[in-house]
Fold:
Amino acid sequence: MARQRRAGSKPGKYLLMATLLVVFATILLPITPFAKLLGFQPLPIMILLVIGMIVVLYILAAEIVKRSFYKRVNF
Structure:
């Protein structure tokens, strides 16, 4: 029986779609008519870019640690 390689696995399409939906809703909600009702204000573009960079760096770091872990345990 062949073992699946987990280090290179991709997220399921429903998980990816749900994640993208939440990201877009989070970005767009403050510019909708509901924003005033909820007390939201749009974030400056620079803040959104910094948050995006932090997320990308987190994903890269998690991938590096994951690959290092699986290499050490010979999985």
